[in-house]
Every structure is written in C-alpha cells, then in structure tokens.
Amino acid sequence: MSHRVYIFDTTLRDGEQSPGVSLNIGEKVQIARQLAKLGVDIIEAGFPISSPGDFEAVRAVARAVKGVTVAGLARTNFQDIDRAWEAVRHAEQARIHTFIATSDIHMKHKLRMSREQVLEAAVAAVKRAKGYTGDVEFSAEDASRTEPAFLFQIIAAAIEAGATVINIPDTVGYAVPGEWGSFIETICREVPGIDRVVVSVHCHNDLGLAVANSLAAVLNGARQVEGAINGIGERAGNAALEEVVMTLHTRKDRFDHFTGVHTEEIYRTSRLVSTLTGMKVQSNKAIVGNNAFAHESGIHQAGVLKDRTTYEIMNPAMVGVAKSNLVMGKHSGRHAFRQRLEDMGFALSDEELNKSFERFKKLADKKSDITDDDIEAIVEEEMRLVPHTYTLDYLQISSGTTVVPTATIGLLKDEQRLEEAACGNGPVDAICRAVDKTTGINCTMISWGINAITAGKDALGDVTLKITTDGQRVYTGRGISTDVLEASAKAYVNAVNKLVWEVEQDKKAEQE
Ligand code: KIV
Ligand code: ZN
Q1: Does ligand 1 come within 6 angstroms of the Cβ of 8?
Q2: Ligand 1 centroid to residue 16 C-alpha, Å
Q3: Angle between helices 25-38 and 52-64 (to 10 degrees)
Q4: What is the 44 CA–ligand 2 centroid distance (Å)?
Q5: 169 CB under 6 A from ligand 1?
Q6: Of all protein residues, whose CA lies closest to atom 1 belonging to ligand 1?
Q7: Which of 228, 217, 237, 167 has its CA nearest to residue 197?
Q8: Residue 205 in contact with ligand 1 by CB distance below 6 A
Q9: Which of 191, 185, 91 is nearest to 135 (CA)?
Q10: In a mutational test of the pocket of ligand 1, which residue from 139, 174, 203, 226 has the highest number of ligand atoms less than 8 Å from its CB?
Q11: Which of 45, 51, 47, 7 is nearest to 27 (CA)?
Q12: Which homologous superfamily is 391-511 in?
C-alpha cells in the first residue's frame, strides 16, 4: 500500500530564523501563497509570541491562504499558546505547534527544569491547545539527544493529552541515517498510542544529513516531514523540502510514498524564497541550483542531446525549470512580453505589467538577447511588496583612483524630487550616504553582494544588501541594472522603503 507523506513547510518560521533573514508581512504572505500553490500540507507561518510583527504576519497568512493548514509555534507556557491561537484562528485549518526541550543538556542548562516539570508542562500545553483546536502538534526539542525512555514517556503523555501530531526533531543535526531510521522505527513500535497520531520528523543539516535523515525516517514510519525551501533555517538549515519531495518522486522503486506537492512549482517557489530572503541558492544545489540541469563536458552534452536520460535522472520541466527558446529582444512587443510572463507563471496587475514592460524595453536597448532569467529579475523587482515611498530618479558618481568618491542622488517622494550629494570611502559608500542624507534616516549596511543574472559583459547585475538602524531589525534590499552602482542604489532604496513601511506599520499597530 502506498503511503501519503505530509509536507510541513517551516520556511516562514525556522527558515526565517536563518541569520540575517527578516521577512515583512507582505513578503510572508506572498511566499505563503506560493507554498499553497506548491501544494504543501502545512505552512508554519511563524512564532506569534516572538514579536508583534510576527504575530501580525502569522495572522495575515492564516487569513490569506486556502486549502492548507496554517500552524503557529508556541512554547509550552499558556501565553505562547493563547497568542498562537489568536494568530492562526482565522485559518481554514489551524494548528497549534507546541514544543519543549527534552534532552538532559537542554533541560539542565537552558530550561533549568526537571524531567517531571517538563513532562507536566508538555501535557498542560497540549491540553490548553486542544481547547482551541483539534489539530495539535507536540515537538520534543532535541529529541535525538534525549534519553529514549524519557522521550517515549513524554510522547505517550502528549498523545494521551490530545496531541494529533508527534514531531521528533533532530534539533542540532546530530543523527546519522541508519541510527535515525531505527530510532523512528522503535518509536513507531514501542510508544503507546503512537498509531493514533501522525509521526513527524524535523531534521537540521549540521552534518549535511537533514534530507537523508528525513528519508530514513519516512522509510521507518514517519508520515510528516518538516523542512524549508532551499533548506534554509537555523545554522546550517533544515531539510530542503524540494530534495525530499523529488527523491520520493524519482525513486518510487525504493519509496512507496507520495506527497501532494505539485513539483512543477518547485523552481518558482525556490526563486521567490531566494529573492525575498536575500539568501542565494548555491549553483550546484540539488534540484534548484543553476547547474542542477546544466551539462558542461562534451561527452555529457553529446549524451544528453542523443537521449536526455543519459545524464538526467529528472526532467527539468518536472520541477518547473523549462526554458523557452523564444528569444525576446528590442523588437518584442507588449503582447509577446505578456504572453512570455504568463508562460512563466507570473500574474501581474496592469500597472506591474506596464512598469515591467518599460524596464524590459530599456534593458533591450542595452542587451541584445533577453533571457527568462532577466525577465524574472525585472518582474520580481517590480513586484516588490512594500510601497515605493522613495524611487531613484537619477544618480551621478564621480570616482577613480585619485579622486574622493562622490555621489549625487535624486530621489522621488510624492512626486517631489529630493537631491543630496555625499562623499564616501568608495562609490557604493558614497551612494548610501547620499541616500541617508536625502531620507534623513541613518542606516548601517551589514552586507552587500552582487550576482550576474546571465553571462556576458552586458549581463544584469543583481545586488542584494542588508541594512539596519538599530542592530536588531534587518532589511534586505535588492536592485538590478546593467550598471552595478545603479543596482546598488536601487537595492539600498528598496531596503529603506521596507524600513519606512515597517515603521509605519508599527505606528499603526500602536494606535490600534
Ligand atoms: O529544531 C527544532 O527542534 C525546532 C522545534 C521548534 C521543532 O525547530
Ligand atoms: Zn528547527
């Protein structure tokens, strides 16, 4: 008999805990909508008690997505659980996910609680959550380093208290596949009541084994896998969901398991998560990396041309990596552009389409062949979700080996042009200082990086940078242009717009 494996996506919670990642409400909702389209079963939208912003984001996701369960994370204390419920209650299907650490190391050093206290807290939390919703998940944090007898006891108690999903996390990515598989098998065999619940795993990637461990667990009885798109998450990240799904799909000879994921949406989802989190996908990343379906050596190319299956175990189209042969250039009209966007799966408003088309035309004057990657970059930039409080009107740079780098910048705000000039240690620094002078907001740049979207001298430069004003909240900005300094200015202005918008949202929330 074939087994259904539920896919629990924690990109918006554990994934957002990746160092330097911070998503605003609009970004979370956009990713959640795409996750629903992808066909994941559960979206863990955040940790509502952790901040007012996270609470609002979980609430917005719960209201926005349909056909998928929305989960909110909570420690075992009642304030956490009540807050999680407040955030998810408007979801079509709402889940409360409560957790407490069960390993001796965590109980002694982090919680300073005895086993009895932890057990009692877990049971009380599950009962509290159960008072709100029938769908309650309990996680024994650091389960892989928990003494088995105690783990079995707390799982049995959580089931008895009403938990419907039992999650066994390898919180620190310590497990190895054979050991982890038999651990899950023992839990599925030994723990009283375990046959009444869904057994889940949540594997971290500290040893690069998160996907292998998740799959070993599936072979041994786990029916829910938790992970994140592109494998993002705390430290080395979570299990990469696209890899789990495609392994189950591709190796049906070894796995009698299936998921509800629409695999053709994988690539698009990966790109969106990468764009909005600012976390680049490494080129050789399985399934979604730029090189995942690229063939470099002559022997490989010849083989693939004769028969794709010589060197490809998956059809790229199956994960949505189909590229068009249609060349777009300066003679392409609005109709062809719209058609191309539709083929690529973008649904744009008329305003977004007009702006994207304008950008496309400008780019076509500078670059002869425009690829799908170029188009995707333009569209993603136009679809930025915060209001464009400031837009870059013009930029002038004076720089060289013997002059002090100076930037003069014009920004538009409410149809008014604001202009300032500043010097800096380099041209990018000068640009940032000029923007700061113009907006009156002093930001610190934490990181700056550039990627070429396509090959060649006329390639679009894709700048991603992160800024902060208080060292706490980080705003990611992205800008693209054939001119890297212009791309930097756009990225900086994009990050500032996010900051301005979030401050406005905070003010509104305070007034309510
Ligand atoms: O890694 C972990 O243990 C977690 C839990 C909250 C499930 O993220
Ligand atoms: Zn985790």
Answers
A1: no
A2: 13
A3: 40
A4: 11
A5: yes
A6: 171
A7: 167
A8: no
A9: 91
A10: 139
A11: 45
A12: Alpha-isopropylmalate synthase LeuA, regulatory domain (3.30.160.270)
Q: What are 460's two structure tokens?
A: 């679009």
Q: How many angstroms separate the alpha carbon of residue 238 from the centre of ligand 1?
A: 10
Query: Could you tell me the fold of the domain covering 3-277?
Result: TIM Barrel (3.20.20)
Cα–Cα dist 405/334, whole Å: 40
* Domain map (residue ranges) of the chain: 3-277, 296-322, 334-382, 391-511
Integer Cα distance of 261 and 245 in angstroms:
7
CA 430 – ligand 2 centroid, Å: 40
pTM, 2 dp: 0.82
* Cβ of residue 76 lying under 6 Å from some atom of ligand 1: no
Give the residue ranges of the chain where pLDDT is below 70: 322-327, 343, 345, 383-385, 455
Report pLDDT for 385.
Answer: 64
Minimum-distance ligand 1 atom for the alpha carbon of 172: 1
Of all protein residues, whose CA lies closest to atom 2 belonging to ligand 1? 171
**Measured between alpha carbons, how far is residue 251 from residues 55, 216, 241, 247, 318 in Å?**
39, 13, 15, 6, 14
Tell me, in angstroms, the distance from the centre of ligand 1 to residue 55's CA. 18
Query: What's the pLDDT tens digit per position in 36-65?
Result: 999 999 999 999 999 998 999 999 999 999
With tokens 């649904």, the residue in question is 347
At 427 the pLDDT is 95
> Tokens for 364?
């076509």
Atom nearest to 238 CA in ligand 1: 1
d(CA 313, CA 308): 9
